Amino acid sequence: MTNEALLYSQEIDHTLPITPQVYNYLRVRIVDNRLPPGAKISEASLAHTLNISRTPLRAALQKLASEGLVNTRPHVGSTVAELDVTQLQEAVFLRAALETAVVRRLADMNADLSSLDPIMEIQQSAAKRDDYAAFFVQDEAFHAELARLAGVPRAWKLALSIKGHVDRQRYLLMAGIAMRSQRAYEEHTEIIDEIRSGDADGAARAMHGHVNSVLELDEYGEMKKLPDSSGPDEERQNQPKGGSL
User: How many whole angstroms from its chain centre is CA 79?
Assistant: First the structure.
């Protein structure tokens, strides 16, 4: 499989930097499995289709390769990488550390979370429709806004740089299980409630469980029984976990 049918020149605004656009477009399609593991990415075909040189294309592929989403070999070409379970587990660990620190800070500072209201409204609507693709976009917006409100927006940018395999897994989670978006919405609501109550420990526990929910799936996208990964609150190990991160 190549990407000729997946990318079209009208998707690229040639008045803007090319590399970030190609990177974002390819990354989205790797995450949502329109470019599945093993798919070949032909530089020649893609550059021709997009009417761009290979220089920005190669830069985008190199960035994807640095995130473990693409395998690139000289004189051979690029293919979409298989899910790397080790990288997935490492990214979940790092993201949990970052995001529990964010919500602790928000709870301690009695932050105004009103800017999350429109995001949550859209999430609620998407969850009711079980529209996991729309929910996924707003899920990203939710976590980015938490970091911004905490005064550490680069924490989310750092999370983005390490969570490629996490995103692939959480997309499988939402796409493969009915109403999973609704459960994720409820987890987001719990996180907000804990922050607003000023309970830093409670907010951290809620976020930790939320981030680690992606580990409910094995590398084949099947449900599995997890070891205790509940973090500070051992009682959470017996509670059902779900949702996207």
Answer: 20
User: What residues contact residue 121 under an 8 Å CB cut-off, 6+ apart?
Assistant: none
Following CA atoms 17, 18, 21, 27 in sequence, which dihedral angle do they give, to the nearest 10 degrees? Answer: -130
Cβ atoms of 228 and 217 within 8 Å: the answer is no
Rounded distance between C-alpha atoms, residue 26 and residue 81, angstroms: 12
Question: Please, are residues 195 and 106 in contact by the beta-carbon 8 Å criterion?
Answer: yes
**CA torsion, ordered 106, 108, 111, 117, to nearest 10 deg:** 50
pLDDT, tens digit, 9 for 90 and up, residues 111-153 = 999 999 999 999 999 999 999 889 989 999 999 999 999 999 9
Average pLDDT, the chain: 83
Spatial distance between the Cα atoms of 175 and 72, rounded to a whole number of angstroms: 28
Residue 37 CA: distances (Å) to CA of 91, 154, 184? 19, 29, 26
pLDDT tens digits, residue range 58-105? 999 999 999 889 998 877 789 999 988 888 888 899 999 999 999 999
Type of residue at 116: L
Residue 231 exposed, middle or buried by CB count within 10 Å (0-12, 13-18, 19+): middle
DSSP state of 217: B
pLDDT at 122: 97
Mean pLDDT of 8-22: 81
Beta bridge partners of 76: none
Nearest C-alpha neighbor of 182 from the set 110, 134, 237: 134
